[in-house]
Amino acid sequence: MLEVFKHNNGHLEDDLSIATAEKGSWINVVNPDSDDLQIVSMVTEIPTDVLKMALDTEERSRVEIEDDYVFVVINIPIILETDSYDTLPLGVFITPDFIVTVCLQETDVMKAFTQNKYPLFYTFKKTRFLFQILFRTATLFLRYLQQINHRTDDIESILRHSMRNREFFMLLELQKSLTFFASALRGNGAVMEKLLRLRRNQSLHHLLKLYEEDEDLLEDVIIENKQAIEMVEMYSNILMNMSDTFASIISNNLNIVMKFLASITIILSVPTTIFSLWGVNVPLPFQENEWGFFLVITIAMICSAVAVALLWMKKLF
């Protein structure tokens, strides 16, 4: 899917075609095929192979500087399922005339811009647009981290009453999500630091024009990203400790159950032994007594009661 946007007199035009894209336009590429990439390459003069790099799900966050464009790859957060989060590479190309974004799927990061819901967003302010994408990404990371924290609290409440495998699998999915987030945030942080250093590079002013407001925005993005990293580390430690704690509780509960079953086995073995002795074919006490059966039952009950008392005193029952 190819979309072309351009601000004119403060209004975002979204009905443009790639063939009529003008200077200051934003070309949004989502899950493109080879024909789409060739068209974008012809219009922007960005090599097709470079455009394809942003479609690699394993692409790492980085900044590449060429003579005719700046290529920035960041990893943005996405929601896969109710309790599953992941990251996806987003490629941003800045050329003298256009800004191009390439991604495998439509995401919440870019929806804020395609739907013109982001304040002070202009397609022709390419550097600021890049920083706004970074800020939106950091904001979404923080939002999803809060959702993970709330979900963790809900799972903890459930585990306090019922320790089923389903809840532990949910914790595992959240731990995986936090691992993906931590890796993406560190990579994005390195990209932001490099972009901040590039402001002193005079040879890139035709591609990256940084005004004072842009530098302030980038510094705010770096702060937000660092906060997200701290939250990821904190929530990861919480989840790890929670998993270890509930694993210990489950092990302890299993020991209690096994101890109880062992005690029951000991108690039941006492009357079983007595009844076995009185079941052999040899002369035995009370075999001529009409109350012999009840006497044997009484002896078995007394011995069982003694066994229960001993186990109780030893706190084994």
Order of helices and strands: EEEHHEEEEHHHHH
Oligomeric composition of the shown chains: single chain
Global Rg: 34 Å
Low-confidence stretches: none
Query: Per DSSP, what share of the residues sits in E-state strands of 2 or more residues?
Result: 15-25%
Instruction: Give the termini distance in whole angstroms.
Output: 69 Å
Largest sheet: 7 strands, mixed
How many domains? The number is 2
Overall mean pLDDT stands at 81
- Tally of separate helices: 7
Could you give the order of strands across the largest sheet?
A: 2-1-3-7-6-5-4
What is the level-2 CATH architecture name of the largest domain?
Answer: 2-Layer Sandwich
User: Could you estimate the helical fraction of the residues in percent?
Assistant: 55-70%
CATH class of the largest domain: Alpha Beta
Question: Could you explain the architecture of this structure?
Answer:
- Strand 1 and strand 2 (11-16) form a beta hairpin.
- This protein has a 7-stranded mixed sheet, with helices on both faces.
- The chain starts with a strand and ends with a helix.
- The protein is rod-shaped and about 115 Å long.
- It is α+β, with helices and mostly antiparallel strands.
- Helix 6 (212-277) packs antiparallel against helix 7 (292-313).
- The protein has 7 helices and 7 strands.
- The protein has 2 domains: 2-251, CorA soluble domain-like (Beta Polymerase, domain 2); 254-314, no CATH class.
